[in-house]
Design brief:
heterodimer, A: 443 residues, mainly alpha, Arc Repressor Mutant, subunit A, three-stranded antiparallel sheet, 3 strands, 66% helix, 2% strand, globular, B: 429 residues, 3 domains, two-stranded parallel ribbon, 24 helices, 5 strands, 4% strand, nucleus (chain A), PCI domain-containing protein (chain A), Rpn7_N (chain A), WH_DNA-bd_sf (chain A)
Chain lengths: 443, 429
């Protein structure tokens, strides 16, 4: 993996000019450097490369980048045998790249024919193995079929085949292999519950696992948590991922991604002590962060309370993160959380804070800041009050004694009310009961 | 059947001591019925011979015969008859009339009907209040007269008069229908006096009372309950689990509009709520709830302003107007001023800068009044707890209860064990 191709997310990347069109416009003006599609795609292999390229093509608003992505996707697909994707990509290109990139019907036909043949052969073999009842052969047969379906883009069939190998696994190595296959397909299908499931299955095998496999499992678990919005768990998993991951899991995730996802989730969900111990002082994770120096700067700025520059870095990263297939839906939430945490952390040490200085620190206007603070106070995340006339924020600590008295009186009233109604109801029931036992009587 | 004169003589003679009264009672019961009523017209002059305090029982029988005789009361000189009844109710002796409660209730009912017919409800208030006290065997008992009395107070708009009866807690109820009416009218009286928390309590009792089938009074009570709870708490709580099953299932269906109102209220936007109310004002009007609904509207402003006091120390009037969705800062100023006067918030308005400063609640819980208040609350609650404990004890000694639990226990063990018996509580002498 070349350093130059460091995820442009990391380098002094910035949004392309037209990028804001598709998503919400980024606040800070940025220089017009585009995501280097080729370098980005080079980090990944397998189907995820295709998926990512297509995603970029769909999401980015810049024609040049879009065509670049589509072109690369087209070439990539020729290496695999997924006919449907080929059709989709050809349709999307729509002839804009010239005749070489059109729907290649001949190729489609050959591939389909070859696929049918191979499928028949595999199925026959499998049936043969099944009659012979040789476990290992059956397992390998299902595996091969699973791989075949995967290559053809028939993901749910692949999923089913991989699951069926479970019954024929004899050693833990087999189990692990099965789990890894299932995880791969589930991630692509978007079924993250299965991912978590099989990660824990794989981790429970009695034999000790290869550190690379451990790292892969942790990364997959983190991804599953991220997609199900459990940011704290995701962060924990990502920071625990071993550096041995390297490029070995490029069919799912690149190490830069681990760094970025982990850092963002950690910033949004960890408290200060966790942030220090698990992220900043974590030697293991530091290796990941080295790959994305911008994110490393970001985390350090946050911890050192340099909120302005921290938020600035975040804004710069945003456009490229919006192109990432796993992160894009969570970017807004994570950013909002990080911003809120920054504000809360800022106000914590002071008795009174001048809103003007705070607004410059956060690079926003006083009115916007006042609104944000009001929202946070209403949610009880900051204990303070705003003096809107002088634009000062005063810390305010509840008077415990008064609050206790109030609560006591309230509880007393509530008790009285409830007991009285209860006695009344008991009485009504008693009369009802008496009437029932003494026979029907006119009400 | 004795002649009327003889009857009257008996009454006059036998109203001395309790034994005599009992004898009189049996005589009267014999003489009671259609024959007496047939002579209704002739009875009136005899009433003048009897005195309501000493001859209450006899008076009552004769009066009741006249009143329920079916002939028009104006035959008896309308207004005067009313005065007679009223005089009797105020002056009668409680012990004697308790021997014939149904008759007494009939007389009260007649009074109420008459008064309502004459559209002068205020004339019925004083006599009925006296009647309530007399027929109650204890201040905690609910009688049918309660409901009638409250109805008259409502019609006459004499809410304070209703208060004296409402202040007693009711623990004994004989007829569930009385309870529903009592709670409903009582709730309305408290609403009229703007004592919303107490109204909420009564309406809550009406809504959660045990009932095998939904009744119309409970549904009306529920509608008002929704509105009052929006005013007091800003939200409508869900049914507690002791609500009857029939209520939980179908109450909301009958009060659909109100449920929608409460969801619209919880969204917090005044304009939406206003449009909703306008659109459905006909429905609210037909339920006679339009006034209450308007109060719900204004309570929304109050709630929003109160929320502001939690976040700001000072705030300009324009900002208040904007966040609460009022038209102009002047409106905001008026609202805040009214809330300060009502004691709902603590603030000062600085007109020069157009700023409002919010203060903390100045109550320090250190004053003598507060101490007395807390002390009396504690005493009240201790008394209530004792009452609860004694009722629980009585219940545990009740034979029906013992049989039920003993039976269950027996089923479980399959045989009677001395250990089982020992753990069942006995009444300690």
């Amino acid at each position: 993996m070349d350093v130059e191709g460091e995820v442009p997310a990391a380098a002094a990347a910035a949004a392309a000019n037209g990028l804001g069109g598709a998503e919400e416009a980024s606040a800070a003006p940025v220089s017009a450097e585009q995501l280097d599609v080729e370098a980005y795609a080079a980090q990944y292999s397998g189907r995820t490369r295709l998926a990512r390229l297509l995603f970029i093509a769909d999401r980015c608003g810049v024609e040049a980048m879009q065509l670049e992505a589509l072109r690369m996707a087209y070439d990539e697909i020729k290496r695999w045998e997924d006919v449907q994707l080929h059709r989709d990509v050809a349709a999307k290109i729509g002839g804009r790249l010239g005749p070489r990139f059109g729907l290649d019907q001949a190729w489609v036909d050959t591939v389909t024919r070859r696929a049918d043949q191979r499928k028949e052969k595999l199925e026959n073999e499998l049936n043969g193995y099944r009659t012979n009842l040789i476990k290992e052969s059956i397992r390998m047969g299902y595996n091969d079929i699973g791989d075949f379906f995967y290559a053809h883009g028939q993901l749910s069939d692949a999923f089913k085949s991989y699951i069926r190998t479970r019954d024929y696994c004899t050693t833990s190595k087999h189990i692990v292999q099965m789990c890894m296959n299932v995880i791969l397909v589930s991630i692509e299908l978007g079924q993250y519950a299965h991912v978590s499931n099989y990660v824990s299955k794989a981790e429970q095998t009695p034999d000790s696992l290869d550190p690379i496999i451990v790292a892969k499992l942790k990364a997959a678990a983190g991804l599953a948590n991220l997609e199900t919005k459990k940011y704290k768990l995701a962060a924990r998993k990502f920071v625990e991922t071993g550096i041995e991951l390297g490029n070995n899991y490029s069919e799912v995730i690149a190490p830069q991604d681990v760094a970025v996802y982990g850092a963002l989730c950690a910033l949004a969900s960890f408290d200060r002590s966790d942030l220090k111990s698990k992220v900043i002082d974590n030697i293991n994770f530091r290796n990941f962060l080295e790959l994305v120096p911008e994110v490393r700067e970001l985390v350090n700025d946050f911890y050192a309370s340099r909120y302005g520059s921290c938020l600035g870095h975040l804004e710069k990263l945003k456009p490229n993160l919006l192109l990432d297939i796993h992160l894009h839906e969570h970017v807004e939430t994570l950013y909002m959380d990080i911003r809120h945490k920054a504000i809360i952390q800022y106000t914590l040490p002071f008795i009174s804070v001048d809103l003007n200085t705070m607004a410059t620190a956060f690079k926003t206007s006083v009115t916007m800041l006042e609104k944000e603070l009001a929202a946070l106070i209403t949610e009880n995340k900051i204990q303070a009050r705003i003096d809107s006339h002088n634009k000062i924020l005063y810390a305010r600590h509840a008077d415990q004694r008064n609050a206790t008295f109030q609560r006591v009186l309230q509880t007393g009233n509530g008790f009285e009310r409830d007991v009285k109604s209860m006695l009344l109801r008991a009485n009504l029931l008693k009369h009802d009961y008496i009437q029932k036992t003494s026979g029907p009587r006119k009400m | 059947m004795e002649s009327l004169e003889a009857l009257v003589a008996h009454i006059q003679g036998l109203s001395g001591s309790p034994e005599e009264v009992a004898h009189l009672h049996s005589l009267l019961k014999q003489a009671d019925g259609e024959p007496l009523r047939a002579h209704a017209a002739a009875l009136v002059p005899f009433l003048a011979h009897l005195s309501p305090e000493t001859h209450s029982l006899g008076y009552l029988y004769l009066l009741e015969a006249c009143a329920t005789s079916g002939s028009n009361l104006s035959d008896f000189g309308g207004g005067d008859f009313l005065v007679t009844i009223a005089g009797f109710l105020t002056a009668c002796s409680a012990d004697q009339i308790r021997l014939a409660p149904d008759k007494f209730l009939n007389v009260c009912r007649v009074l109420k009907d008459q008064v309502m017919q004459l559209i002068m409800p205020i004339r019925g208030i004083a006599p009925l209040r006296a009647a309530v006290r007399k027929i109650q065997s204890s201040p905690e008992q609910l009688t049918p007269v309660h409901a009638d009395y409250l109805l008259l107070c409502l019609l006459a708009k004499q809410y304070k008069a209703g208060l004296s009866v409402l202040e007693d807690d009711i623990f004994e109820v004989e007829q569930p229908k009385d309870l529903f009416l009592y709670c409903y009218y009582g709730g309305m009286i408290y609403i009229g006096l703007k004592k919303f928390p107490k109204a909420l309590e009564l309406l809550h009792n009406a809504v959660t009372a045990p009932m095998s089938m939904l009744n119309a009074i409970a549904v009306e009570a529920y509608k008002k309950y929704v509105l009052v709870s929006l005013i007091v708490n800003g939200q409508v709580p869900s049914f507690p689990k002791y609500t009857s099953v029939s209520a939980q299932r179908s109450m909301k269906n009958h009060a659909q509009i109100y449920v929608e109102l409460s969801t619209s209220y919880s969204n917090g936007r005044y304009t939406d709520l206003e449009t909703f109310v306008q659109a459905n004002s006909a429905v609210f009007q037909s339920d006679n709830n339009l006034g209450l609904v308007k109060q719900v509207l204004s309570s929304m402003y109050k709630r929003n302003i109160q929320r502001l006091t939690q976040t700001y120390l000072t705030l300009s009037l324009e900002d208040i107007a904007r966040s609460v969705q009022l038209e102009t800062p002047r409106d905001a100023e008026m609202h805040v001023l009214r809330m300060i006067e009502d004691g709902e918030i603590h603030a000062t308005i600085n007109q020069k800068d157009g700023m409002v400063s919010f203060h903390e609640d100045p109550e320090q819980y250190k004053s003598v009044e507060m101490l007395e208040h807390i002390d009396s609350s504690i005493q009240r609650l201790t008394a209530l707890s004792k009452k609860l404990a004694s009722i629980d004890e009585n219940m545990s000694c009740d034979p029906a209860y013992l049989m039920k639990t003993g039976r269950d226990r027996g089923r479980f063990d399959g045989r009677f064990d001395y250990d089982d018996y020992d753990s069942v509580p006995h009444k300690y002498f």
